[in-house]
Amino acid sequence: QECEQTKVAVLGAGVAGIRAAQELSNNGVDDFVLIEYQDRIGGRMHDVKFGQGPDGVPYKVEAGANWVQGTVTGDGPENPISVLAKKYNITTLVTDQDSLAMFDQHGSTDFKYAIDEFGEALEKVVVDAGSLLYNDLQDRTFRAGFRLEGWDPLKNDSYRQTAEWWLFDGEFIYHPEESSEIFTSVAENATFNYYSPDNLFVYDQRGFATIIREEAKTFLPDSDPRLRLSTEVTRIEYDDDSVTVHTNQGTCVHADYAIMTFSLGVLQKKAVEFVPPLPAWKQAAISSFELGTYTKIFMQFDTPFWDNKQYLIYADPETRGYYPEFQPLDIPGALEGSGLLIATVVNDQSYRVEAQTNEQTQAEVMEVLRTMYGPQVPDPTHLWYKRWSQTPWAYGSYSNWPPATSLQSHQNLRTNVGNLFFAGEATSQEFFGYLQGAYLEGQYTAEFVASCIGGSGNCTTSDDEKRYPVLTGVTPYNLYNWEHGWVADTLA
Ligand SMILES: Cc1cc2nc3c(=O)[nH]c(=O)nc-3n(C[C@H](O)[C@H](O)[C@H](O)COP(=O)(O)OP(=O)(O)OC[C@H]3O[C@@H](n4cnc5c(N)ncnc54)[C@H](O)[C@@H]3O)c2cc1C
Q: DSSP letters of 284-341?
C-alpha cells in the first residue's frame, strides 16, 4: 500500500498533541499530520452539554479536567495552563477548601479537626519525601509515610478516613497505600509549591477546552487538511528511520517521526498494535504505572437545597469513599440559578459506579443526599456521568506513580523507541496527572523532534533520549543471605 508521506505524525489531539504540533510549527516544521480518534480536539479536556439553562440552552460542564491547578507566585514561574486561562479570559472560581459543610449518617456535623490533622500530616510527609529523594533512600508507600508522622486512622474512624479521602484520594485518585511517597510528593510540590497553591475551578460556558481550541487556531486554520478527526490509529510500525501509522479508515501515513500522545490506559489495554512489539523495558514501564479513574456525576435540580458552600463532604460510616464529595455549582460566584450539583467518586467506587446504570447510581446518590438534607429532597431532573474507565480512547482519567517505581522506570515510559516518541500527561516526571504535564511534555518532545529534523541526520542513533534497558533493585545480590533471612535458594 502506498502511504501518504509526511515529516511528523502527531498521534492524538489532546493537550499534548496540540502543543506538540504547535511547537513543531513554531520550529518551522509544518509538514505534519495530526490524527485523532474523536470528532473533536481536547482529549481529556472534555466539555459536554448537560441539563437546561433558563433559555432552554444546556449548560456546559467539564467531564474531564476542571481546575487550573497551581497558577503563579509573585514573579515566579507560571503554570502554562494558567497563562492560557488568562489569555482566553476563562471564567473560574477560586477554590476555597474552608467553604465546606460536613455530614454523616445523622445529618450535619463537624469534623474540621480531622481535616486539619490530616493537612498537618500531609505537609510533614511531603518534607520527609524530600529527604528520601535527596538522600537516595528507598521509596515507601504514602501510608507508611503517614504512619511515621502519626497519622494512621482506625478503619472505622469515618471522619478521619473521609478527611484523608477528600485531600488525598480525591486528588491523586488512589489510596495512600497505592501511592509512592516520593513521587506523589513530587507531584504535589511541583504543582502547588513550584507554581502556587491555588486551584481555579473552571465553569466557563464556552468550555475549558477553549484554551486548546483557540491555541490550535494559531497554527492550524479551520478545516486544515493536516488535522484528521474521527480517525483511529490501529497499528504503528516503527524503526530507527521512520514510522508508519495505519488507521481504521484503511489509510496509512509514512512519517520520518511520530509523536504518540495516547493515554497510558490506551497503551496498557493494547488498543494499538506495535510492530515490532515494544521492547521489554518499554512494556515493563507501561505496565508499572497506574491510570486512575475519577468520576463526576452531574445532577440538575429544580431548586437548590444545599448550603451555599463549595464543598459538601459526607462521611459514610461503613464505606470509605462512598459519595464523599459534592460540589454545588449553583452558589454565589459560580452558576447561580443553575440547580447544578456534582458528586465525585474515584478508584474502586468509580469502577463500581461506572458499571451501574444511571438509575442505579441516582438511587444511591439520592439516598446519601436525603441522609444529608432530609427526606424532602426531590429527585434531579437530569443526571449524567462519563464512564472514564470504559472510554476506549482513554481507559481512565489520569496517572499516578505506585510505590516501587523509580525515575529510571518512568524515564523508560517517556523515552522514544526508534523514531517513535511518546508524550502526554503520564510521561511528565513532575507534573503527571495534570494538564501542565501534558502541555510541557508535548512541547518538550516536539522541540526534541524538531531538533532531530533540523540536525544533520538521524538523531535517534546519535542523540537518543535516555533509557534503561536493565532496571536494578536496591539490594545488592550478595545481601540475599542468611543474615537477611534468605535461607533457601528460591530463585529460579
Ligand atoms: C475526570 C478528569 C478530571 C481531571 N481533572 C483535572 C484537573 O482538574 N486539572 C488538571 O490539570 N488535570 C485534570 N485532569 C487530567 C488532564 O485532563 C490530563 O492530564 C490531560 O488532559 C491529558 O492530556 P494528554 O494530551 O496527555 O492526553 P489526552 O487528553 O488523553 O489526549 C490523547 C488523545 O489521543 C486520542 N487517542 C487515543 N487513542 C487513539 C487512537 N487509537 N487513535 C487516534 N487517537 C487516539 C484521544 O482521543 C485523545 O484526544 C483530569 C482528567 C480527567 C479525566
A: HHHHHSEEE-EEEEEEE-SS--S-SSSEEEE--SSSTTSS-EEEESSSTTS-TTS-EE
Q: Which atom of ligand 1 is nearest to the CA of 42?
A: 49
pLDDT tens string, the chain, 492 residues long: the values are 799 999 999 999 999 999 999 999 999 999 999 999 999 999 999 999 999 998 999 999 999 999 999 999 999 999 999 999 999 999 999 999 999 999 999 999 999 999 999 999 999 999 999 999 999 899 999 999 999 999 999 999 999 999 999 999 999 999 999 999 999 999 988 889 899 999 999 999 999 999 999 999 999 998 999 999 999 999 999 999 999 999 999 999 999 999 999 999 999 999 999 999 999 999 999 999 999 999 999 999 999 999 999 999 999 999 999 999 999 999 998 999 999 999 999 999 999 999 999 999 999 999 999 999 999 999 999 999 999 999 999 999 999 999 988 999 999 999 999 999 999 999 999 999 999 999 999 999 999 999 899 875 556 655 668 889 888 877 888 888 888 778 887 776
The Å distance, Cα 363 to ligand 1 centre, comes to 30
- Between CA 169 and CA 175 the distance in angstroms is 6
Atom of ligand 1 minimally distant from the CA of 272: 41
Q: Which residue has the cell 475519577?
A: 294
The structural domains of the chain, ordered by start, are: 4-45+209-288+397-462 (3.50.50.60), 47-205+294-390 (3.90.660.10)
Q: Is 69 in the pocket of ligand 1 (CB under 6 A)?
A: yes
ipTM summary value: 0.99
